[in-house]
Amino acid sequence: MTPLLEVRGIDKSFGPVKVLHNVELSAYAGEVTALVGDNGAGKSTLVKCIGGIYPIDAGTIFFDGGPVAIHTPRDAGELGIEIVYQDLALCDNLDIVQNMFLGREHKRGLLLDEDTMEELAEKTLSGLSVRTVKSIRQQVSSLSGGQRQTVAIAKAVLWNSKVVILDEPTAALGVAQTAQVLELVRRLADTGLAVVLISHNMNDVFAVSDRIAALYLGRMAAQVKTADVTHAQVVELITAGRSGDLGLKNGVTP
Amino acid sequence: MIKVKELPGEAIVTATQAPSIKNSFRAYVQRVRGGDMGALPAVLGLVVLCVVFAVARPSFVTAGNFANLFTQGAAVTLIAMGLVFVLLLGEIDLSAGFASGVCAAVLAVTLTSMGLPWYVCALAAIVTGVIIGTVLGTLVAKVGIPSFVVTLAAFLAFQGLVLVLVDEGTNISIRDSVIVAIANRNLPPWLGWALYAVCVAVFAVVQLVRARKRAKRGLVADPLSLIAFRVGTLAVLAGAAVFVLNLERSRNPLLVSLTGVPIVVPLILALLVVWTVILRRTAFGRHLYAVGGNTEAARRAGIPVDRLRISAFVICSSMAAIGGIVAASRASSVDPNTGGSSVLLYAVGAAVIGGTSLFGGKGRVLDAVLGGAVVAVIENGMGLMGYGASVKYLVTGSVLLLAAGVDALARKRAAAAGLR
Ligand SMILES: Nc1ncnc2c1ncn2[C@@H]1O[C@H](COP(=O)(O)OP(=O)(O)OP(=O)(O)O)[C@@H](O)[C@H]1O
Ligand SMILES: [Mg+2]
């Protein structure tokens, strides 16, 4: 099975600091791939490289088997890659519909087609079984953390996206909302999308993921099937970069 | 695999309240309480000021003075309308006042020394505004100099530029009848009423059609009663204004009759409608709000942030140019002070008093018009009371500070209410 999204040999530096070293990652359609790693391991940076926010120094991104060039967020969007960023990236002064369609508004002639956008937003939200918002014309500033997260996810799935990457979508959420978001994540994968989930919570990772990719100090320590590993092994991969014969040899080089 | 289906406490079902005047009003009160006051301070301020001046100086409520208010406030209002675009992005344009002076000088020079027809000259003035805006916007967006510094530098430089254009301080008088008419002539009374009828009718039709369309698609639509209320309010207020402006206001009606809506009024209205449609109903306008609300989010949504920033400055300077043309028309001349002294602060004040935030992301073109009315009433009323420039400056300064304070406090309050 070819991965829907695959990156190979990604290097990324911020000035003198090299944050990603020869990183590879594969995500398969219909599966949840958990991307784990300690704080500062480079997870968000990797995601932003895939999303066209940061240019990569070296390496290739493959989509559906072929190499692609992603220079801007728009390029990623056109391929069908949608990212829910750790810092959400919603505009507080706009309402839910306006945020969901930001940058890709439906138009009739020169004017915005508000009614169609409202209908589609409504449909997407109810498709995700979201019933927690009072009105989809509510300003995002008046939403709770969980509701914002839901809007951000809904925004990502609105576009018939093929790959959805979620950067710590449950970090700020309570127990109930976390469960809800995770269920959503699982459902996305079950509908055939390739989902990449970044999380620090091992229980969450084992609850929803099919594969686990562990990043250690900017290097990909291991990519394994969730069923083949234990909690303890993954924790070791995260904290030491290796576990038994899994992971990086000699501390750093794979 | 986890299984979570129905979560208690989370099933608040899309409880869209039945739309009605009562609910709309309640929602409005809630918004105001939450710190989103919109036009409320400006409207209240306008009412209070008018009552105070009317009591203190009966001459304030004459038809002649009412007409004066429009021509007096027109230039500042036009500049303020442009400033809204820059303020929406959280930027500032301190040079808008003198930019209007430069453009007015271009108009005067092309009219008098070159003797070109009025439309060519007006176009030259506006193109000058476009160029100024492009330069300022590029310096801010591409080079990355804070707009405060760029436009402060331009503020100084443009004063010099005006002096150069008007030959070190001479006064160029404008005699072209069309340009002079803009701020000094009135529509014939019948045309005033005709325009009034068209405006009210179009407003009503647009609202009705929109509500009908939304209702048909099963979306929440404004109820008829609310639309009737809106249209009725507009019809009454605008009708009263047209009626008063159509009264005879000449001191000596037998010699020369002076009636009708000043020509600047439809000019401002047309620009108000055009800019409002662009801001609220086009992707360009939506993106301006997005950049003002969260630049990074806008960038990630693929919005060309730099280009948008430059266009905001272009719009601001072009509106300043139009303001300059109106100012030149009103004075029938251009001198080194055109667009100078308090014009810029009045314009910023007008936008902020009207409810446009200095922090970006919040504002409407209508704010500039409402705020412009407040500023015009203060200036006019204080003049009638016989106060000198000193008191006028002090009062306007205080009002600007008050408006900015209200803006900042509203923001704080919204943050406390979890609304921001
Ligand atoms: N814009 C930037 N400029 C310079 N350094 C950066 C930048 N963004 C990230 N870094 C550095 O890159 C490294 C990886 O950061 P990144 O945000 O990718 O970590 P992460 O794995 O997402 O961590 P967390 O779990 O805390 O979100 C960190 O050392 C960070 O300091
Ligand atoms: Mg991160």
From TrEMBL, chain A:
Gene3D superfamilies for this protein: P-loop containing nucleotide triphosphate hydrolases
Protein name per Swiss-Prot or TrEMBL: Sugar ABC transporter ATP-binding protein
One annotated GO molecular function: ATP binding
Coiled-coil region list: none
Keyword ATP-binding: yes
Source organism of the structure: Nonomuraea turkmeniaca
Chloroplast listed as a keyword: no
CDD domains (UniProt xref): ABC_Carb_Monos_I
Classification via SMART domains: AAA (SM00382)
From TrEMBL, chain B:
Topology in the lipid bilayer: Multi-pass membrane protein
Domain of life: Bacteria
UniProt GO MF annotations: transmembrane transporter activity
Localization, UniProt: Cell membrane
Transmembrane segments: 38-57, 69-89, 96-116, 122-141, 148-166, 190-211, 223-245, 257-279, 310-331, 343-361
Keyword annotations of the record: Cell inner membrane, Cell membrane, Membrane, Sugar transport, Transmembrane, Transmembrane helix, Transport
Gene Ontology cellular-component terms listed: plasma membrane
InterPro entries reported for this sequence: ABC_transp_permease (IPR001851)
Predominant location: membrane
PANTHER family according to UniProt: ABC TRANSPORTER PERMEASE PROTEIN YPHD-RELATED-RELATED, XYLOSE TRANSPORT SYSTEM PERMEASE PROTEIN XYLH
Function: Part of the binding-protein-dependent transport system for D-xylose. Probably responsible for the translocation of the substrate across the membrane.
Protein name, entry field: Xylose transport system permease protein XylH
Species annotation: Nonomuraea turkmeniaca
